[in-house]
Structure formats: structure tokens, C-alpha cells
């Protein structure tokens, strides 16, 4: 009975993790990252398996990305330009997404929401390939540092724990260096050019 309850609890945890990561992949901000981080910490204490957490997170992120792409393809423009609260912010996000896609092509899969890729009508085969690569990299870069840090802080300093932490930190640093920072610099340059343009009379 106890073993069955434990197994049932683990399955429920993986189901919840999968659902939250699907929502995150579809475009709900931060929810997927928070869920993977929490699950990785649980795995560090033996409640879950880190391999299982990463596998479920990767599957959820890929499926969520496909759902986000599909929503963007069919209803994205209407949703982003719908009058109401946040309309200006949504339109700005849409303009930035188009600009990034025009500049980077398939590389945009690494730093634009999946529904924006759908709005831009990126070829589905191209989107699926590079969204899958991006999803896997992001899940490893999220789960491994959280897992490694939690293991080290609780006194687990075995070779595998240090390796997990090191790999995760390297992946996170590469994503920050090659994807996040260039995107922010590009946005800053665009804002600077916009402010420097003379106003229409």
C-alpha cells in the first residue's frame, strides 16, 4: 500500500509538471520554468527522478510549443490586436516578434514565443525541428542547475552532482550569452533609433 501510494504520488507530480510545462511552452510566462525548477529540487532530495523530470519537461515543452504555434497560426493576430487592457504592449510584442523573425529566421525559435512563430507563418517542419532543440536545451539549462545547487546545499558533493551542476551552469551561461543578451542589445538599439528619429510634423 505504501509503495503504491508513493508511485501514485510520483505519477501525479509528473502529470502536473507536464501540464504546467505545456502551458509554459504555449506562451504562459514563467510557469514552465518555475515548475521545472521546483521538480528538479524535489528530484535532488529523491522524491522524483531528475531523468524523469527532464524527460517530462522536454516532452511538455515541445507539445506546448506546437500548441502555441497552432494558436498563433489561426488566431494570433486577432488575439494580439484585440482592443482592451494591454493592447499596446501586445502590439509591441507582435512587432518585435516580426522583426526578430525577419532578422534571424529559424534562429528566432530560440527567443520568440511559439505563438509568434505561428503568427509569422514559419514553416511548421522548420519550427518543429528548432523548437524541439530549443525546448530540450532550455529544460536541461533549467533543471540541472536547480538540481545541482540543491544537491550541493544539502551536502551531496559526489562527482555526478558536481558534473550536473557544472553542465547546467554552462548551458545556462551559453543561453544567456548567445541568445538573451544579443536579443536585449538588439531591442535596445531599436529603441534608441526610434527615440532618435525626428517627430513627424
Shape: elongated
Order of helices and strands: HHHHHHH
> Terminal Cα separation, in Å?
78 Å
Strand content range:
under 5%
Mean pLDDT over the full residue set: 77
* Helix content bin: over 70%
Structural class based on helices, strands and sheet pairing:
mainly alpha
Distinct helical segment count: 7
Radius of gyration: 19 Å
- The low-confidence runs, each spanning 5 or more residues with pLDDT under 50, are 1-7, 190-201
Report the count of strand segments: 0
Describe the structure.
The protein has 201 residues and is mostly helical. Helix content is 81%, strand content 0%. The protein contains seven helices and no strands. Helix 3 (50-80) crosses helix 6. The relative contact order is 0.11. Residues 1-7 and 190-201 have low confidence and may be disordered.
Short précis:
The chain is an all-alpha fold and 201 residues long. It is built from 7 helices and no strands.
Name its key features.
single chain, 201 residues, mainly alpha, 7 helices, disordered N terminus, disordered C terminus
Task: Explain the layout of strands and helices.
Elements lengths: L1 H25 L4 H14 L5 H31 L6 H18 L9 H6 L4 H30 L5 H38 L5
Helix pairs in contact: 1-2, 1-3, 2-3, 2-6, 3-6, 6-7
Amino acid at each position: 500500500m505504501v509503495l503504491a501510494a508513493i508511485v501514485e504520488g510520483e505519477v501525479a507530480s509528473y502529470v502536473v509538471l507536464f501540464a504546467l510545462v505545456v502551458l509554459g511552452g504555449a506562451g504562459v510566462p514563467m510557469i514552465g520554468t518555475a515548475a521545472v525548477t521546483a521538480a528538479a529540487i524535489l528530484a535532488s532530495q529523491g522524491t522524483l527522478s531528475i531523468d524523469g523530470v527532464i524527460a517530462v519537461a522536454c516532452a511538455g515543452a515541445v507539445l506546448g510549443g506546437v500548441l502555441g504555434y497552432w494558436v498563433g497560426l489561426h488566431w494570433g493576430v486577432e488575439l494580439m490586436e484585440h482592443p482592451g487592457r494591454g493592447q499596446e504592449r501586445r502590439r509591441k510584442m507582435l512587432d518585435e516578434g516580426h522583426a526578430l523573425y525577419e532578422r534571424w529566421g529559424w534562429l528566432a525559435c530560440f527567443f520568440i514565443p511559439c505563438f509568434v512563430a505561428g503568427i509569422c507563418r514559419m514553416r511548421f517542419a522548420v519550427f518543429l525541428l528548432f523548437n524541439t532543440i530549443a525546448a530540450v536545451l532550455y529544460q536541461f539549462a533549467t533543471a540541472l542547475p536547480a538540481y545541482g545547487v540543491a544537491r550541493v546545499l544539502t551536502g551531496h558533493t559526489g562527482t555526478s552532482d558536481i558534473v550536473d551542476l557544472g553542465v547546467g551552469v554552462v548551458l545556462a551561461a551559453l543561453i544567456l550569452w548567445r541568445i538573451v543578451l544579443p536579443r536585449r542589445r538588439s531591442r535596445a538599439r531599436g529603441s534608441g533609433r526610434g527615440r532618435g528619429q525626428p517627430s513627424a510634423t
